[in-house]
Design brief:
The chain is an alpha+beta fold. It contains ten helices and twelve strands. Strands 1, 2, 3, 4, 5 and 6 form a six-stranded antiparallel β-sheet that branches. The protein starts with 7 loop residues before the first helix and ends with a helix.
């Protein structure tokens, strides 16, 4: 849904339900951030402490299993936010409107739930993590996992599974390569086979713990070069801790060089050291090298363009396809090698 579909009077009604003057200054936060769901969010200057107002569409929620972003799911996510506050995790506290947990609003053909949060001050977004930031991200993840151990009201939460996502990527790409030219088929078959091989090498994992689900670079707050908190509830779900760690390692261990993502051993080591610096992060219960490989090799920024090209029914540029997959495989192989060196001889 386009952000422009939110009428000014709808936004004014939402503000009034939060007890905020309808003429309060608002700043749209995600006009061009590439958010594939285009759920709008604003900073609202209330005259006191500012707040963040996010509208969450009722829509398909997860790429995995086509789960639905229902009221039940959102309510479960907000319960976890409240739990994080009780455990003193640096995550924005909720602002509760007069009529319940959120305000229902409509834009064009979409039903939204408007949810308010306190504003956490932070520096502008970073381009490349430092070792201190990478360490802080790993430590923050461990703190989130530690806080989740006594969160028992998980009913209604969806599931974020890296292995499940990897299987879905492999299955969809395999189905789309039926009938394509032989050279493209070979490129895709090799990648699909390697994804499945890595999945099989990990075995089954259980998504049993509530987690952030999307602790990537934009969602980690930095102030004066240090990690000070996390934002975004949109992917809060049941996770496997080591799968989530694998994603955070990938997100915080890479620099962009000549347009390519290049993993750096020092950054990867800092993430793992940060995670292991708390008691909650001491145990890594699954093969981290293989999971980091899967995180890179099945990244949405690879999968979605390739799927779109294969599904278009027109000729696919073989050089483009080969270069795109080769770049991600190089990244994935490098990450796996780094993590094997880091985790060798450790549980």
């Amino acid at each position: 849904m386009a952000i422009s579909a939110i009428a000014p009077e709808v936004l004014q009604h939402i503000l009034s339900e939060y007890g905020i003057p309808a003429d309060s200054a608002t700043t749209l936060l995600n006009l061009d951030d590439g958010d594939h769901h285009h759920d709008p969010a604003w900073r609202v200057d209330t005259g006191g402490d500012p707040m963040v107002l996010r509208l969450i569409a009722e829509r398909e929620w997860s790429w995995l299993g086509h789960q639905w972003y229902s009221d039940e799911l959102l309510s479960a996510q907000l319960r976890f936010v409240d739990h994080l506050q009780q455990r003193r995790i640096p995550f924005p506290a909720r602002r509760v409107p007069s009529g319940g947990e959120w305000v229902v609003a409509h834009g064009a053909d979409t039903r939204y739930r408007a949810v308010g949060f306190e504003w956490l001050p932070a520096d502008p977004g970073i381009e490349t993590p430092t070792e201190a930031i990478a360490h802080g991200a790993g430590r923050l993840l461990a703190s989130l996992h530690g806080a989740a151990t006594d969160f028992t009201r998980t009913e209604g939460l969806g599931t974020e599974s890296l292995l499940g996502w990897a299987r879905q990527v492999a299955d969809e790409l395999s189905a789309l390569t039926v009938g394509v030219p032989a050279t493209i088929g070979r490129i895709m078959s090799r990648h699909v086979d390697d994804i499945r091989r890595q999945v099989d090498s990990v075995g089954e994992l259980s998504c049993r713990l509530a987690g952030h689900g999307d602790l990537n670079v934009p969602n980690v707050l930095i102030r004066r070069g240090a990690v000070v908190g996390a934002v975004d509830i949109g992917r809060i779900a049941l996770i496997d801790p080591t799968e989530e760690l694998a994603n955070v390692v990938r997100w915080f261990s890479e620099r962009k060089i000549d347009g390519k993502r290049v993993p750096e051993p020092a950054l990867a080591a800092a993430v793992v050291a940060g995670y292991r610096s708390t008691s909650a992060g001491q145990a890594i219960s699954a093969p981290l090298p293989e999971l980091t490989w899967l995180s890179a090799a099945t990244a949405p920024h690879l999968f979605f363009p390739v799927r779109k090209a294969l599904a278009a029914g027109t000729a696919v540029d073989e050089d483009w396809l080969a270069a795109r997959i080769d770049a991600r495989r190089t990244e994935a192989d490098r990450l796996r090698d780094i993590m094997r060196a880091l985790t060798r001889g450790r549980a």
